[in-house]
Amino acid sequence: DTAVSQTPKYLVTQMGNDKSIKCEQNLGHDTMYWYKQDSKKFLKIMFSYNNKELIINETVPNRFSPKSPDKAHLNLHINSLELGDSAVYFCASSQGRVNTQYFGPGTRLTVL
Amino acid sequence: GENVEQHPSTLSVQEGDSAVIKCTYSDSASNYFPWYKQELGKRPQLIIDIRSNVGEKKDQRIAVTLNKTAKHFSLHITETQPEDSAVYFCAASGNSNYQLIWGAGTKLIIKP
């Protein structure tokens, strides 16, 4: 009965590689998000989709590309990984844009 | 731009005492103010929220107060317990794109 799930939980990879993180929510929410949390714990919004349409696209390198195949899924693809991409990435969902956000368990990305 | 400032960055209190975390926001149109708790290695989870049509909300040992005139809101935890140790984030709804603007977080340490 997991509400927001992410895979994988851990991702260790070399610089320059391309990787994807998947997110799924079974709450029936219409809005999904990707956040980056670095070692200082600051939560930085990266992207937000509402009904499969991109509504927030913060200043992130264009190596990061979100894809929402349907309202329940929001995946994050990262090209040419860099050391500074190492962080925990959280997916979240909410019903409407200004409402409780439910977070996934996070994906810890380590770039070597 | 829109901004949420959160203080203090670290708060250490004796078990049983009260803890107060304060946030100020810049957008007078903000109308939703949630607080999230993130335990070590876990996902952020909503603990309480308030909307701009009320000034205070309580849920057992936690309460949130809102001062719209001064544009600040606070989290109050009474009778603190070891399990209250975590990082707490405040957020405020932003006017543009209706996204949440997050504070930088407060690490709360409960001393036995």
User: What's the alpha carbon Rg of chain B, rounded to whole Å?
Assistant: 13 Å
User: Which runs of chain A of at least 5 residues are low in confidence (pLDDT < 50)?
Assistant: none
N→C terminal distance of chain A: 34 Å
Calculate the terminal CA-CA distance of chain B, rounded to whole Å. 41 Å
Fraction in beta strands of chain A: over 45%
Helix content of chain B: under 10%
User: Which oligomeric state applies?
Assistant: heterodimer
Structure at a glance:
The complex is a heterodimer of chains A (112) and B (112). Chain A is mainly β and 112 residues long.
Describe the protein's topology.
The complex is a heterodimer of chains A (112) and B (112).
Chain A: E1 4-7, E2 10-13, E3 19-25, E4 31-37, E5 43-50, E6 53-57, E7 64-70, E8 73-78, E9 87-94, E10 102-103, E11 107-111
Parallel strand pairs in A: 2-11
Antiparallel strand pairs in A: 1-3, 3-8, 4-5, 4-9, 5-6, 7-8, 9-10, 9-11
Chain B: E1 4-7, E2 10-14, E3 19-25, E4 32-38, E5 45-51, E6 56-59, E7 62-67, E8 72-77, E9 86-93, E10 100-102, E11 106-111
Parallel strand pairs in B: 2-11
Antiparallel strand pairs in B: 1-3, 3-8, 4-5, 4-9, 6-7, 7-8, 9-10, 9-11
Description:
The complex is a heterodimer of chains A (112) and B (112). With 112 residues, chain A is mainly beta. Chain A has no helices and eleven strands. In chain A, the strands form two sheets. In chain A, strands 2, 4, 5, 6, 9, 10 and 11 form a seven-stranded mixed beta sheet that branches. In chain A, strands 1-3-8-7 form a four-stranded antiparallel beta sheet, with no helix packed on it. In chain A, strand 9 and strand 10 (102-103) form a beta hairpin. Chain B has 112 residues and is mostly beta strands. Helices cover 0% and strands 56% of the residues of chain B. Chain B is built from no helices and eleven strands. Chain B has strands at 4-7, 10-14, 19-25, 32-38, 45-51, 56-59, 62-67, 72-77, 86-93, 100-102, 106-111. In chain B, the strands form two sheets. In chain B, strands 2, 4, 5, 9, 10 and 11 form a six-stranded mixed beta sheet that branches. Chain B has a five-stranded antiparallel beta sheet with strand order 1-3-8-7-6, with no helix packed on it. The model of chain B has no long low-confidence stretch (mean pLDDT 93). Classes of the chains: A mainly beta (112), B mainly beta (112).
